[in-house]
């Protein structure tokens, strides 16, 4: 399975190729995508992304995870979360969301087993 291309990104709106839904925030992995609902884990901009936000994507057999922190990079990513990802043997890149989507799409287009979580507003 390949990682799906993120087809579009604008403030508060993302679409993934092959998916009829649009997302505010999303998770993607080889073969799928879904909304990233912060309420599931109690995530907020600070302290930010938690291991529980990433577990689902990490279980999909990825080698690299891309995290999009938002258009203004308001979403924090604690070092403990990065340590959690690396302990799973997965490389991680944390970027402003537009740059994160570009990086993710480049890697997906090269056939990498890449996953991502992306925040599309602040």
Task: Give a written overview of the molecule.
This protein has 122 residues and is of the alpha/beta class. It has helices at residues 51-58, 79-87, 97-109; strands at residues 6-10, 13-16, 22-23, 25-29, 32-35, 64-68, 91-95, 114-119. A 5-stranded mixed sheet has the order 5-4-8-6-7, with helices on both faces. Strands 1-2-3 form a 3-stranded antiparallel sheet, with helices on one face.
- Assign the structural class, choosing from mainly alpha, mainly beta, alpha/beta, alpha+beta, or little secondary structure: alpha/beta
Strand and helix order: EEEEEHEHEHE
Annotated CATH topology: Hypothetical Protein Mth938, Chain: A
The major beta sheet can be summarized as: 5 strands, mixed
Family: Belongs to the AAMDC family.
Main location: cytoplasm
Organism: Perca flavescens (American yellow perch)
Pfam families: DUF498 (PF04430)
Put the structure in a nutshell.
With 122 residues, the chain is an alpha/beta fold. The protein contains three helices and eight strands, in the order E-E-E-E-E-H-E-H-E-H-E. A hairpin with a 5-residue loop joins strand 2 (13-16) and strand 3 (22-23).
Which secondary structure elements does this structure contain, and how are they paired or packed?
Blueprint (H helix, E strand, L loop, with lengths): L5 E5 L2 E4 L5 E2 L1 E5 L2 E4 L15 H8 L5 E5 L10 H9 L3 E5 L1 H13 L4 E6 L3
Parallel strand pairs: 6-7, 6-8
Antiparallel strand pairs: 1-2, 2-3, 4-5, 4-8
Subcellular location: Cytoplasm
Keywords: Cytoplasm
Family: Belongs to the AAMDC family.
Salient structural properties:
single chain; 122 residues; alpha/beta; Hypothetical Protein Mth938, Chain: A; five-stranded mixed sheet; three-stranded antiparallel sheet; 3 helices
């Amino acid at each position: 399975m390949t990682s799906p291309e993120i087809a579009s990104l604008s403030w508060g709106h993302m679409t993934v190729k092959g998916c009829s839904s649009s997302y505010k925030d999303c998770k993607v992995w080889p073969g799928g995508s879904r909304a990233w609902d912060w309420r599931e884990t109690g995530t907020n901009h600070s302290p930010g992304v938690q291991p529980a936000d990433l577990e689902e994507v990490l279980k999909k057999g990825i080698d690299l995870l891309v995290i999009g922190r938002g258009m203004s990079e308001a979403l924090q990513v604690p070092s403990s979360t990065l340590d959690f990802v690396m302990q799973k043997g997965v490389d991680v890149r944390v970027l402003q969301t537009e740059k994160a989507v570009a990086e993710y799409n480049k890697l997906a287009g090269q056939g990498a087993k890449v996953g991502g979580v992306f925040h599309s507003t602040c």
